[in-house]
Write a structure and sequence with these properties.
The protein is α/β, with parallel strands linked by helices. The protein is built from 14 helices and 21 strands. Helix 13 links the parallel strand 17 and strand 18. The chain starts with a strand and ends in a 16-residue tail after the last strand. The structure holds 1,4-dihydronicotinamide adenine dinucleotide and the ligand O=C(O)CCC(=O)N[C@@H](CCC(=O)O)C(=O)O. The site of the ligand O=C(O)CCC(=O)N[C@@H](CCC(=O)O)C(=O)O has 15 residues, from helix 5 and strand 20. 1,4-dihydronicotinamide adenine dinucleotide binds next to helix 7 and helix 8.
Length: 489
């Protein structure tokens, strides 16, 4: 049985129940273990607490040595890790190679972000000096999603460690092997014991960790449903820091473009990359009700019909791999059926290619006629909803008619229209003539509404990994030149 829990520098067998990981493309079990029991979660928290003081007392440069060693190891093991991500998620190898690249790039970016956003500022004063410095929170839990099982948890872990926190990592139960391989590299990098701990398991493991009184914070990337539960759970604990990166129902608007193929490429890249399993993916496409709108839609259907779906290791490589599981694929087909039942018109019906696997074809559905009854839900897969519009301001209003606010975009040759769109659209990522997926790690990454809680990650992760300390410092106490009224010395 795999020793799946990494606690205080030891790989241990779980004391919970059997868990497994499936390859959603080749339908094989690729990993089996036992989940962490609540007692083991408690041991991981204690290990992280014990490791905290010495780790936080290292200088930033000393911590950076370990983190850079980890980046070098990622480079050495990049093919193996890319293959593991592909096997566990179904994503094609061309894409998982970029995921490992993003993990490596995260280290230099987080170093810059730490110094720029949470470094030390020294200001001279008439007497002594004023300082702004930053300190780590302590023991933090990191919760990861399955769609980027390496890159997204890494986006919390690297800045958390650089800032001096110690970590308990709870990965998605759908991607335990990627988590194990990643933590093995941290171990190889020589991280002192207890600085990073790994607890594997399902929801009950997550609950045991999130509710543990010994954590000082929780950094979460995952669904809005879970994020909201955590937010409720953290209510009444103002001292604990909670960073939530959640889902979206992201709009992409099109009006007045000169290059239809470039526009269709941006739409496809926004809606169908990673089989639609990115939180930034466009879910709603707004096309004008005119000749150009018709032409874009016709070309979009033509290109989408030809999208290659296939095994992660197929040659030539497919654009889309399998979804994370056959269950996720079934849920997407059920979401499509629900929209059809409400009266939406399927322009290209999404098909589940094999009921046992995660393979689906991309779907496009016209929901213009059912806007008043359409659920405002994130359908996390390759299903694009088309909305035809006549009035641009009404289209923006409808684009904003969501509880989410993660990414949004405009495809148009009109610069003034973009300024107008930018002023009115509500989202944390707003692009012009670019796909709305593929956000940069060198920029803040987060959304408003039910997409997040105003603690953007990526470049701004440094902000939630440390708290600011303001100090006024004098080498020795001095009597002031004049005393306040009523004092006698
Ligand atoms: N805004 C962002 O940065 C991103 C958001 N996402 C969102 O993530 C979702 C897909 O990821 P999933 O893995 O399905 O998310 P999920 O919410 O199901 O799971 C995320 C993590 O929370 C844990 N968890 C689930 N229920 C829990 C509970 N009641 N208490 C404590 N822990 C619990 C899971 O075990 C997992 O480790 C999509 O909604 C997507 O939009 C994904 C990537 C990036
Ligand atoms: O976290 C970062 O370093 C940048 C944000 C990022 O990588 N976003 C990706 C993934 C989004 C998702 O999780 O689904 C993107 O925008 O495509």
């Amino acid at each position: 049985m795999t020793k799946a829990q990494f606690i205080a520098g030891q790989w241990l067998e779980g004391q919970g129940h059997d868990i497994a990981s499936q390859d959603p493309a080749k339908k094989q079990t690729i990993w089996q273990a036992k989940s962490a029991s609540p007692a083991q979660v408690g041991e991981a928290v204690s290990a992280a607490r014990q490791a905290f003081l010495p780790w936080s007392e290292f200088s930033f440069e000393e911590r950076l040595v370990f983190v850079k060693r980890f980046a070098a190891l990622l480079g050495e093991h990049k093919d193996e890790l890319a293959l593991t991500i592909a096997r566990e998620t179904g994503k094609p190898l061309w894409e998982t190679a970029t995921e490992v690249g993003a993990m490596i790039g995260k280290v230099a970016i987080s170093e810059r972000a730490y110094k720029e956003r949470t470094g030390t500022v020294e200001n001279p004063m008439p007497l002594g000096k004023a300082y702004i410095r930053h300190k780590p929170h302590g023991v933090v839990a990191v919760f990861g999603p399955y769609n980027f099982p390496g890159h997204l948890p890494n986006g919390h872990i690297v800045p958390a460690l650089l800032a001096g926190n110690t970590v308990i990592f709870k990965p998605s139960e759908l991607t335990p092997l990627v988590a194990q391989k990643t933590v093995e590299l941290w171990e190889k990098a020589g991280l002192p014991q207890g600085v990073i701990n790994l607890v594997q398991g399902e929801v009950e493991t997550g609950k045991a960790l999130a509710s543990h009184p010994g954590i000082d914070g929780l950094f979460f990337t995952g669904s809005s449903r879970t994020g909201k539960l955590l937010h409720e759970q953290f209510g009444g604990h103002p001292g604990k820091i909670l960073a939530l990166e959640m889902g979206g129902n992201n709009p992409l608007l099109v009006r007045g473009v000169s290059d239809i193929d470039a526009t269709v490429h941006d739409i496809v890249q926004s809606a169908f990359v990673t089989s639609g399993q990115r939180c930034t993916c466009s879910r709603r496409l707004f096309l004008e009700q005119n000749e150009q709108g018709d032409a874009i839609l016709a070309r979009l259907l033509e290109v989408t019909r030809q999208i290659q779906v296939g095994d992660y290791d197929a040659e030539p490589q497919p654009f889309m791999g399998a979804m994370i599981s056959s269950r996720a694929a079934q849920q997407m087909v059920a979401a499509q059926k629900q929209l059809q039942d409400l009266g939406a018109e399927s322009l290209l019906e999404m098909q589940h290619l094999d009921p046992e696997s995660g393979f689906v074809t991309p779907g496009i559905i016209d929901v213009t006629g059912i806007l008043d009854k359409m659920p405002d839900e994130e359908h996390f897969g390759p299903l694009l909803k088309v909305i035809r519009y006549s009035d641009f301001d009404q289209a923006i209003e409808e684009a904003n008619n969501t509880v989410f606010g993660l990414s949004a975009g405009l495809l148009s040759d009109d610069a003034e229209l973009y300024q107008h769109f930018f002023r009115r659209i509500r989202a944390g990522i707003v692009n012009w003539n670019r796909p709305i997926t593929g956000a940069s790690s060198a920029a803040p990454f987060g959304g408003i509404g039910e997409s997040g809680n105003h603690r953007a990650s990526a470049y701004y992760a440094a902000d939630y990994c440390a708290y600011p300390v303001a100090s006024v410092e004098l080498e020795k106490s001095d009597m002031p030149d004049s005393l306040n009224p009523g004092l006698k010395f």
